[in-house]
Write a structure and sequence with these properties.
With 342 residues, this protein is of the alpha+beta class. The protein is 45% helix and 14% strand. The protein folds into three domains: 11-83, no CATH class; 87-219, no CATH class; 224-341, VSR Endonuclease (Endonuclease, Chain A, 3-Layer(aba) Sandwich). A hairpin with a 2-residue loop joins β9 and β10. It comes from Jiangella mangrovi.
């Protein structure tokens, strides 16, 4: 189990004023309050009983005269006020048991990934023999062999590859799957090999989409629009597969690494997403790079994600024309060189 530094609990600072050691004559054990401080202010019915609270005292704490609130069956918040997504994460871990860990979208967000679907469920991994009671806001998945967890901000989470694959499992479209897998690899959080290992030979709903997206990542695609460009190129009857995100042969220092290029035709295709090309100093960088392409004799075909999705036939025709023109132009030059050497 890999642990990062666990920050000092903020529960007492956040909820201390709202919690009470005594509620209408019912004393809350100090031991239980200290335990709650390590669990984001939550306790279970079993923990409360182990600390000496009777069922009547628990009912009183949850009643009108108390200051507790029920988060789920047998899981209580020892404070008044708003419950947050973190409290649901902690409740799922308490329900899952000591070996439980968070996976899926919540784990991906903890790692800093941005392309996580908004409706990705809270997933909690538990041992194969565990039988946690269902929760309305969490999905429990039993695993024959739990991966080694990592600790982020005091919460055990599954490794990045497992978290990403669990997020993609069975509910999201190909574009969302591609975006998340590409981001996970490009950010350096995981590798395509680890993602493939996390999928394995499993056949669950959505596994075919994950394998398709992994094929794009293996080819060199770095974003969902690049994957869609690859889909489009592969429908062509005249285009070979280009090189994806590979340095140009003239660029030993890899300063020019286009999204896709055909070396024989000396044609580059760049996907002009607003994230990379139109914000900050993006326009100036794009202009300098394309001037560099031109100086080296490369033709650049810029393509926007919007056109890929709404004008695919037109985009493909433009790329085909550029590549065919490049082949003719450079074939002619080769003939001239050959004739001049005779």
């Amino acid at each position: 189990m890999t642990r990062t530094r666990r920050p000092q609990s903020t529960v007492s600072r956040t909820h201390g004023a709202a919690r009470r050691r005594t509620m209408n004559g019912v004393r809350i054990p100090d031991e239980l309050l200290l335990l709650a401080d390590t669990q984001d202010g939550l306790v279970t019915r079993r923990q409360a009983a182990a600390c000496g609270m009777s069922p009547a005292a628990i009912r009183h704490a949850l009643g009108a005269g108390g200051h507790w609130q029920r988060l789920a069956a047998g899981i209580y918040a020892t404070f008044t006020g708003r419950l947050t997504p973190r409290h649901r994460v902690r409740a799922a871990l308490l329900r899952g048991g000591a070996a439980a860990m968070i996976s899926g979208g919540h784990a991906c967000r903890a790692y800093g990934l941005r392309y996580v679907p908004d409706d990705a469920p809270l997933i909690c991994l538990v041992p194969a023999g565990a039988q946690p009671a269902a929760m309305a806001f969490a999905e429990f998945r039993r695993a024959a062999a739990l991966p080694a967890s990592r600790w982020i901000d005091g919460v055990p989470v599954a490794p990045p590859a497992r978290a990403v694959i669990d997020t993609c499992r069975g509910r999201f479209p190909l574009r969302a799957v591609r975006a998340l897998l590409c981001e996970a690899v490009q950010s350096g959080l995981t590798t395509r090999e680890l993602l493939a290992d996390a999928v394995g030979d499993a056949r669950w709903q959505g596994s075919a989409l994950v394998r398709l997206a992994l094929g794009d990542v293996r080819a060199g695609c770095r974003s969902a629009p690049e994957c869609e460009l690859r889909d489009l190129v592969r429908t062509s009857l005249v285009l070979d597969e280009p090189l994806w995100n590979r340095p140009l042969p003239e660029e030993a220092d890899a300063q020019l690494t286009p999204d896709a290029h055909w070396r024989d035709a000396r044609v580059v295709v760049e996907v002009d997403s607003s994230e990379w090309h139109r914000l900050g100093d993006g326009p100036e960088r794009t202009e300098r790079r394309r001037a560099h392409y031109a100086a080296l004799g490369w033709t650049v075909v810029p393509v926007s994600p919007w056109r890929l999705r709404h004008e695919p036939r037109t985009v493909l025709a433009e790329i085909e024309a550029a590549v065919q023109s490049g082949h003719r132009r450079h074939a002619g030059r080769r003939c001239d060189v050959t004739a001049g050497s005779m």
